[in-house]
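Dear U.,

Please find below the material for section 3 of the report. The protein was modelled together with flavin-adenine dinucleotide; I have listed the sequence and SMILES used, followed by the predicted complex structure.
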Amino acid sequence: MRYEAPTSTKDAVGLLSKAKGKGQVLAGGSDLLVRLKGGFIEPDLIVDIKRIPAMQGVTKTASGFKIGAAVSCAQLGENAALKKAWPGVVEAANLIGSDQIQSRCTVVGNLCNASPAADSVPAMVAAKAKAVVVGPKGKRTIPVENVVAGPGKTALKAGELIESITLPARKGKTGDAYLRFIPRTEMDIAVCSAGVNLTLGRGGVVTDARVALGAVAPTVVLVPAAAKAIIGTKLDDVALAALAAACEAACNPIDDKRGTVEFRTEVAGVLAKRAAKIAYQRAGG
Ligand SMILES: Cc1cc2nc3c(=O)[nH]c(=O)nc-3n(C[C@H](O)[C@H](O)[C@H](O)COP(=O)(O)OP(=O)(O)OC[C@H]3O[C@@H](n4cnc5c(N)ncnc54)[C@H](O)[C@@H]3O)c2cc1C
């Protein structure tokens, strides 16, 4: 197995494209090393991206925020401007693992590991986050919800990797929130989860919303019907009940010892309602 630590995205793409067998990108390694040490994967090449300047730092731009693919989740929590604009995305990222994991793990690794229960993904999908993908044929920007193709599978093509994640700029009264259910108080994988992002207009009426659910289907689910249920309302009980019903209808979970289909479906609706209330309050409603 060859280990490389290139200092540019171009070199990283070059290495991945020319790799004879399967190449793997190494960000924080908190998923990759577990799979490697467990003998689940045996890559011929590992490309460490942590020395690439374009993948470092959180940048505030006119169009929003750019988060480098090598930025740890702990660094996201230390960025006051990002936390103010996107508290739900940051709280989701900061739920991952422990302090030790936080100092290593990245939201891009969380996304590309492609677990249906990945904590940062529903929050990023609700936030309309995009992934900047670089590969042998150049750069393309795709919605985060299009990155994951199924459990453990991404839609990235051979030689491609994600350079950064972008989040849109915030205008007016906005708020987002992420909640998950786990049987323990921390260090566990979501049994189900919900991310809600909304904008308020005059009189506290919801003018725009996005709702995403985690761990209730093979990939994170964006639920337009749930957003529709609260747009045009002041998030009254009727609207919240309609939101929960739309979320329940969008669930297609597995049945296992951590949660039955019925449990995951019902709790997804409950979490979406609670997350919507927090997002509404954060937006000043
Ligand atoms: C003790 C422990 C607790 C955990 N708790 C949680 C939790 O509460 N919630 C949760 O969601 N997860 C949890 N995880 C899983 C893991 O920590 C997260 O998924 C983390 O965000 C992965 O990020 P990473 O940077 O470490 O990824 P890595 O392990 O470096 O990479 C993960 C995968 O993504 C690929 N990849 C990484 N970066 C890129 C890129 N730029 N472009 C293309 N592909 C890329 C890698 O090749 C690999 O396949 C936990 C793990 C451990 C060990």
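For the text of the report, you could mention the following: The mean pLDDT is 97.

Regards,
Y.
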